[in-house]
């Protein structure tokens, strides 16, 4: 059916393409005959003034609007500070081009009277490096829609199933409201909680680094950012919405968003409670829960192929998949921003999460070795609970015109409780059971983390000469208790049973502090020299005690216990040369990094002292062809020093069949990273194209070697290999078909990864290739109906050097469809369908999962501020999740329990429409878009 629909659409498009088309062209100047670039051009229907097409003028004032039907139009031109200009166009039969010649605009000040008409607002406006969308021109079909629904309608903006936003091909890292942070840096907290009809404008731009914004020297670093500008009436009262729903199988879902934005002050409250797997967790939450951000701060992070990477935190990530088990989630928070005066500003937020998670999982893994394939099967059941509090504050104070302070503080408290029961077995190449085990584990504890920075910035009288100093402090305190009861039975020549009954306790203290200086000196002709120096010290104190239990008595196991202290110190000094031009900027430089490690293993009375020295060059080049066409080239070197945990030869037997140990001879890994990025966006026809290529070559790469014992116990150890390499490419083209009210998007991706597998001290090369693509189609008819279709295909193959193993090949496919229909003024109907296909050519496995959801809504109360909805989720009752992946020496498939069919009746009250009855309707006329 999908193929037939797409064929029909392309046939219609081809038929349209051969019809007679019209081009309108000319040049726009002011009264002094000076060109007017970036003016907004609108082609309107003379019948009802609906928008047919629009564009902008070039730098010389010239313009062309192509592919119009040969019929009469109203041609309107608007430009800031000038009176609108309107012309009627009546093309002659067979005429292909209407040349309007040179059009002259008059300043508004020359008019005797001026009338502002809201309908004249352009759908898209270019302001230097910012693309600004008028939200009224991109209304959603959904009633009570959130910002995420609005973003999906904007040309050049895409939103993935997990809420990840991409604008002009780049991932959006930050979403602000009226230029202020909204609950920290997680974009989804804004896009999934703020109502769409509260937004007046959506501004997409590349946010420069804080250092570049302060010094005025473009360092080439960018962060794709979206700013949501609120309607004026939304700043005069409270707005938001609240939803509560109950359904079959005791399912419930509740969510509330309450906001009050006034001049100089923003207050927002968010709350949620549900047991329908609505997690609300982002990668930032996960990094906070696990302390991953602290680990990343200790050194570089070159890409490496890692054999085993299990998440033991008990915190699921919201990546949009179905392999999540069954969850109940509760959360709430407050965001408060305050501008006290022209010098002092506060941004702050507090958020609380509580998660209850049940996960049943079956793992089927084939390990490929030159001596034959080994099979590992495991059935596990987990119950995880997590509670997290986090507080963030940013205080900005301008001492005077030359000096400013920024104090940033984050405080987090995380408490987790994880219990797991599992049974597993390993099979030889001939299918004989080599060993099997049963294991019960439990872990519980808490982590408190404090991070604070104080930044002082000073501008000298000479333009471009700046000095900044940043002081950093980090404190992490973790206390965890655990217990393990594991029985492993070995077969074959060494038949026997091994029983482990242990408890453990680990206290970890991590303190870090540092300082860095940055000085910029102008050299003239927009050339600059930057000198920088940074010092950082990470102090760790770990006390892990493991006790064997025997007849109720606890005996310290010194082989598994570990007590150590470490001090990692970094000294970095460097010089950067920068050249800034109107079209481009260039940065080249280098840094010398000296690293010292001083470790003390107390139980073994062993000292570990290491010293590393590396030169880290950097080069960045940005070229802006126009305000909507950019080229970025980057090269950067980084180093990953091994942690003390990786260096110490202490065995971890938390899984008796998969143990690990450290390597005192481990050396740092050195990575070269090249990035190429080209983006172009045509505001005249809403087409966009971008290409991204990232290549990383890691010398002396750190990977994980494996030693398989005669009893098939796997012992993992970090080792260095000569090199790893990874190349990733991505290209996307998006374009509209105005005549069909449609939009198409095509994405192609490819990844090539070469690594080294180390098995029983023998190295072999592994090559992994992933190719895929995404097709998206959107059809929209006025504000009545819209349809979204997409297909995402991925093919992954793994080639092994040893000839005894056949190469791996598998496919992951996702087909999706979603539609929204508004009818009879007060009703709406929504359906969504996902068809997931998992296929392994090598193992002859195929699993398909159809997911079908539908809902019908009735809108009540004044201005449709009340919505009564009946929804059926997972109508076909497919309570199964599947994932499959191949790595350097294994192919793995996991099946997971997932939420089955349930019915939900909910009521949503849109507070913004009640307190602002005019909020649902713009002042003056409204443009009706036909696209």
UniProtKB/TrEMBL annotation:
Cellular compartments annotated: Cell outer membrane
Keyword Signal set for record: yes
UniProt KW Signal keyword: yes
Gene3D superfamilies assigned to the protein according to its UniProt record, in alphabetical order: TonB-dependent receptor, beta-barrel domain
Keywords per UniProt: Cell outer membrane, Membrane, Signal
InterPro entries noted in UniProt: Beta-barrel_TonB_sf (IPR036942), CarboxyPept-like_regulatory (IPR008969), OMP_b-brl_3 (IPR041700)
Residue ranges of domain Outer membrane protein beta-barrel in the record: 458-740, 749-909
Stretches of the chain forming a coiled coil according to its record: none
Signal peptide residues on this chain, from the entry's feature table: 1-19
Protein name as annotated: Outer membrane beta-barrel protein
Organism: Chryseolinea lacunae
């Amino acid at each position: 059916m999908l193929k037939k629909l797409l064929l029909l659409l392309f046939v219609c498009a081809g038929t349209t393409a051969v019809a007679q088309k019209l081009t309108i062209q000319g040049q726009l100047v002011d009264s002094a005959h000076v060109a007017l670039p970036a003016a907004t051009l609108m082609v309107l229907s003379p019948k009802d003034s609906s928008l047919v097409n629009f564009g902008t003028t070039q730098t010389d004032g010239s313009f062309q609007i192509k592919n119009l039907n040969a019929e009469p139009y109203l041609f309107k031109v608007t430009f800031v500070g000038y009176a609108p200009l309107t012309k009627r166009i009546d093309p002659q039969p067979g005429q292909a081009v209407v040349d309007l010649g040179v059009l002259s605009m008059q300043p508004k000040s020359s008019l005797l009277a001026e009338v502002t008409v809201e309908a004249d607002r352009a759908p898209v406006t270019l302001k230097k490096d910012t693309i600004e969308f008028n939200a009224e021109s991109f209304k959603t079909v959904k009633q009570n829609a959130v910002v995420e629904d609005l973003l999906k309608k904007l040309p050049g903006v895409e939103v993935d199933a997990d809420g990840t936003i991409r604008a002009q091909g780049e991932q959006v890292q930050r979403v602000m409201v009226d230029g202020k942070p909204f609950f920290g840096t997680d974009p989804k907290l804004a896009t999934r909680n703020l109502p769409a009809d509260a937004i007046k404008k959506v501004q997409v731009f590349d946010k420069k680094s804080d250092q570049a914004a302060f010094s005025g020297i473009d360092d080439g670093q960018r962060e794709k950012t979206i700013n949501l500008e609120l309607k004026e009436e939304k700043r005069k009262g409270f707005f938001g919405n609240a939803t509560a729903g109950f359904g079959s199988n005791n399912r419930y879902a509740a969510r509330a968003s309450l906001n009050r934005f006034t001049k100089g002050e923003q207050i927002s409250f968010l709350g949620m409670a549900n047991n329908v797997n609505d997690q609300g967790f982002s990668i930032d939450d996960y990094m906070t829960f696990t302390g991953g951000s602290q680990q990343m701060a200790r050194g570089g992070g070159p890409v490496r192929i890692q054999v085993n990477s299990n998440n033991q935190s008990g915190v699921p990530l919201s990546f949009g998949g179905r392999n999540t088990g069954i969850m109940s989630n509760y959360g709430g928070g407050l965001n408060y921003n305050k501008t006290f005066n022209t010098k002092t500003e506060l941004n702050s937020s507090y958020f609380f999460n509580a998660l209850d998670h049940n996960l049943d999982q079956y793992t089927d893994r084939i390990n490929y070795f030159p001596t034959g394939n080994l099979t590992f099967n495991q059935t596990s059941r987990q119950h995880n609970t997590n509670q997290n509090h986090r507080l963030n504050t940013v205080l900005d104070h301008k001492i005077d015109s030359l000096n400013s302070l920024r104090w940033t503080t984050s405080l987090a408290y995380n408490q987790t409780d994880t219990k797991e029961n599992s049974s597993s077995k390993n099979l030889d190449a001939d299918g004989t059971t080599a060993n099997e085990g049963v294991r019960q584990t439990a872990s519980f504890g808490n982590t408190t983390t404090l991070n604070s920075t104080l930044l002082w910035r000073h501008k000298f009288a000479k333009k471009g000469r700046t000095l900044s100093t940043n002081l950093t402090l980090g404190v992490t305190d973790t206390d965890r208790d655990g217990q393990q009861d594991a029985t492993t039975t070995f077969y074959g020549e060494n038949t026997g049973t091994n029983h482990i009954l242990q408890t453990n306790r680990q206290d970890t203290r991590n303190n870090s502090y540092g300082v860095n200086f940055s000085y910029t000196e102008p050299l003239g002709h927009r050339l600059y020299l930057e000198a920088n120096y940074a010092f950082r010290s990470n102090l760790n104190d770990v006390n892990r005690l493991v006790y064997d239990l025997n007849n109720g008595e606890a005996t310290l196991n010194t082989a598994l216990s570990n007590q150590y202290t470490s001090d990692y110190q970094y000294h970095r000094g460097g010089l950067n040369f920068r050249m800034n031009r109107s079209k481009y900027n260039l940065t080249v430089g280098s840094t010398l990094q000296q690293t010292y490690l001083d470790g003390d293993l107390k139980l073994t009375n062993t000292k570990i002292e290491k010293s590393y020295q590396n030169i880290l060059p950097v080069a960045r080049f940005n070229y802006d062809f126009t305000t909507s066409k950019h080229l970025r080239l980057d090269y950067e070197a980084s180093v990953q020093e091994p942690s003390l945990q990786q260096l110490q030869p202490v065995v971890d037997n938390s899984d008796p069949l998969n143990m690990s140990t450290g390597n005192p001879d481990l050396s740092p890994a050195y990575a070269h990273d090249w990035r190429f990025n080209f983006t172009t966006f045509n505001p005249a026809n809403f087409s966009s194209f971008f290409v991204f290529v990232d290549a990383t070559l890691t010398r002396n790469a750190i990977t994980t070697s494996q030693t398989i014992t005669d009893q098939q116990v796997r012992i993992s150890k970090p080792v260095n290999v000569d090199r790893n390499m990874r190349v990733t490419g991505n290209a996307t083209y998006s374009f509209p078909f105005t005549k069909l009210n449609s939009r198409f998007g095509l994405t192609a991706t490819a990844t090539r990864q070469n690594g080294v597998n180390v098995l029983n001290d023998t190295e072999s090369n592994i090559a992994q290739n992933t190719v895929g693509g995404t097709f998206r189609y959107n059809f929209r008819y006025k504000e009545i109906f819209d349809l979204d279709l997409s297909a995402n295909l991925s093919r992954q193959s793994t080639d092994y050097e040893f000839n005894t193993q056949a190469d791996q090949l598998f496919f992951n496919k996702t087909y999706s469809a979603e539609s929204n229909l508004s009818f009879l003024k007060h009703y709406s109907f929504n359906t969504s369908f996902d068809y997931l296909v998992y296929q392994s050519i090598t193992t002859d496995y195929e699993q398909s999962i159809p997911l079908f959801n539908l809902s019908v809504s009735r809108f009540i109360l004044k201005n449709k501020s009340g919505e009564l909805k009946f929804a059926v989720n997972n109508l076909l009752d497919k309570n199964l999740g599947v994932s499959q992946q191949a790595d350097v020496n294994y192919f793995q498939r996991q099946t997971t329990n997932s939420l089955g069919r349930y019915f939900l009746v909910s009521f949503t009250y849109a507070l913004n429409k009640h307190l602002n009855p005019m909020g649902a309707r713009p002042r003056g006329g409204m443009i009706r878009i036909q696209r």
